[in-house]
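Holo model, MU-OXO-diiron. Inputs:
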Amino acid sequence: MKDVFISESIKYIGASDRTLDLFEGQYILPEGMAYNSYVILDEKTCVMDTVDDLVKDEFFKSLEKELQGRKLDYLVVQHLEPDHSSNIEEIAKRYPEAQIVLSQRAATMLPNFVKTDLKDRFVPVAEGDKLSLGTHTLNFIAAPMVHWPEVILSYEESEKVLFAADAFGKFGALDAEEDWACEARRYYFNIVGKYGVQVQALLKKAAGLEIEKILPLHGPILDENLGYYINLYDIWSSYRPETEGVFIAYATLHGHTRKVAEKLKALLEEKGCPKVSIADLSRADIAECVEDAFKYSKTVLAASSYDGGVMPKMEDFLHHLKSKKWQNRKVGLIENTSWGPSAIKTMKSILEEMKDIEIVEPNVSVKVNLSEETSEKLSELASALV
Ligand code: FEO
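Output:
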């Protein structure tokens, strides 16, 4: 495992896994996943969250090594999703004196996640409460719905460290050599994307703190250029586009709609569109497509009509976007009518349920292959998008 040094008093005791195929049963993990945990060594000892069962053995080995025979005084439970709570019961068993510090909401939820009754060890805390460990003091910050209702974050004031729970996390093992933003963005929009308002509220609270390090529950420790990460979180959680450009998502049965989508990409590039991304919804990672729809300022949806509606891959994609509160975007629409024009009508009916979606005209309705007339319309759409 990659060595992670935080400070003389805050030690990394998490671990990475590269065996799980799908995080939360749905998100591909091409570079594995890190399950972070930390122990603070002071007059009192304190673990910040546990880990997924996948890395249980490494976690307990690291914890024992760092405690060097000392007892554990506190376990802070910031988030109860099983990738962090799977070992609460085991840590409580191994360290019978440890008190469990958690939000009031977590105190009501935790009994559902464990088999033994731990209630007499609960220390419920709320926004503004502090926990002194000696020279270190944890300040608790309520962060409901980032990403579950019970979430609290902890700011340690002596080292100016923010324990950020799922915020600022990403997919990928700690030794994955990849761009932070790409996998953090896919993680953010698919997992926390719906809760932009709550993330904005958290960012406002964080703005009042002097932060030198962000310690998330997934992904690398962030200890330099924090403005870069915080700025991206501000853009993402306020539903503003990050990149000026067009994302083309297409759903095709026999390849004709793909040809139209590829023609549009070429036209956009000819007309000087700064960035064009294209994805086949039947083959691409849908979470990556959700990410791109949020990333770019404009999206074009191109799909075949199907059974009086739209090809199910497109319908499914739109429902994903709706569930993540996709909004504030310009959208172009292309349908392949085949034997009956129904795709645009169906796509529009789903888009109408979203906030601040502006349809860019003209809509393009192709009958199997592009004709002279529909080629002209496609070119008009490209011009309107640029
Ligand atoms: Fe990493 Fe919402 O759990």
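Residues 186 and 288 are 6 Å apart (CA to CA). The first strand starts at residue 10 and ends at 12.
Archived with the compound record.
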